[in-house]
Amino acid sequence: MDLLPVALTIITASTPLLLAATGELVTEKAGVLNLGVEGMMLVGAIAAFAAAVSTGSGLIAILVGAFSGVAVAAIFAVLTLTCLANQVATGLALTIFGVGLSALVGSNFVGISLEPLPQLNIGVLSTIPILGDLLFGHDVLVYLSFLMILLVGYFLSKTRSGLILRAVGESHDSAHALGYSVLTVRYLAVLFGGFMSGLAGSYLSLVYTPLWAENMTAGRGWIALALVVFGTWRAGRIAFGAYLFGAITILQLHVQGWGINIASQFMTMLPYLATVIVLVFISSDKMKIRINAPQSIGKVFYPPR
User: Fold this and answer.
1) What are the backbone angles phi and psi of residue 110, rounded to the nearest 5°?
2) Residue 11 has pLDDT above 80, yes or no
3) Taking the complete model, does pTM exceed 0.70, yes or no?
4) Three-state SS string across the chain, please?
5) Would the CA dihedral through 228, 231, 235, 239 be positive or negative?
6) Domain coordinates in residue numbering, the chain
7) Do the beta carbons of residue 249 and residue 13 sit within 8 Å?
8) What is d(CA 224, CA 229) in angstroms, rounded to the nearest whole number?
9) What whole-number distance in Å separates Cα of residue 62 and Cα of residue 46?
């Protein structure tokens, strides 16, 4: 059994989960629960694909996809932070909006395929047997996912700005009393979450399956949301969870090829079944949730008049 192709497939399956979960981590640490990750990913996916078809530039496609996610996130931010709409209901509406908008725009791009983003050639490192392919033969978004989770982990735990963001998420009233702009911090966090979700969607349509298909995220946005809880709002644990869920996702592609007789329907539902089991297991430990979850998450901040 050649494990190298399996490991490479796990990396590609995990990258969109890691990108989206990194953005949602920052959003939730600021005290905002955005359930619209799936919708933002779909809009980012079709925007990036359309830009790639129109311009032929991978860089432009990535930027268009990322900032399309920002645009959708801005709608959520205005509704929940300025208009004080319910965050759960607005997030669900955002997902429905993203599904519909992406299907409408993508109707003209069905059946078109692209060359995936090129793999980076890191000189002699890329020629090292096994390790060269495993560590130094990926596209730019894979390395960006590694970089962003490291930067976000450092930002949240080691910087003054990260401390302010966490303070807003823990007690927005106390942060406001200390003179910090709660709305500014939350707006920036939500927009960053949209940026990362747009990148995750771009990866799906430009690398993972370089074509457009309606609902191509296939629930990955919901898995990214679950990963934040799975990782108890900590960057390192979220990265581990993303690769664990990525491995579960690609099992369906390999298990039957290994001669193991398991129904294909069961393998298809396995990632989502694992998500439900993990959430039930974690939710049973209410003390861990209480200690690690931002205390103001999902709560409306009423700016003083």
Assistant:
1) -65, 135
2) yes
3) yes
4) CCHHHHHHHHHHHHHHHHHHHHHHHHHHHCCCCCCCHHHHHHHHHHHHHHHHHHHCCHHHHHHHHHHHHHHHHHHHHHHHHHCCCCHHHHHHHHHHHHHHHHHHHHCCCCCCECCCCCCCCCHHHHHCCCHHHHHCCCCHHHHHHHHHHHHHHHHHHHCHHHHHHHHHHHCHHHHHHCCCCHHHHHHHHHHHHHHHHHHHHHHHHHHHCCECCCCCCCCHHHHHHHHHHHCCCCHHHHHHHHHHHHHHHHHHHHCHHHCCCCCHHHHHHHHHHHHHHHHHHHHCCHHHHHHHCCCCCCCCCCCCC
5) negative
6) 3-292
7) yes
8) 9
9) 11
Report, at the CATH architecture level, how domain 3-292 is classified: Orthogonal Bundle (1.10)
CB 20 within 8 A of CB 200: yes
The residues near 260 (Cβ < 8 Å, ≥ 6 apart) are none
- Name which of 183, 189, 19, 34 is nearest 98 in CA terms: 34
- Burial readout 124-139 (b: 16 or more C-beta within 10 A, e: otherwise): eebeeeeeebeebbbb
> How far is residue 186's CA from residue 231's CA, in Å, rounded to a whole number?
21
The pLDDT tens digits of the residues spanning 180-200 come to 999 999 999 999 999 999 999
Q: Which of 106-110, 145-149, 231-235, 255-259 has the least mean pLDDT?
A: 255-259
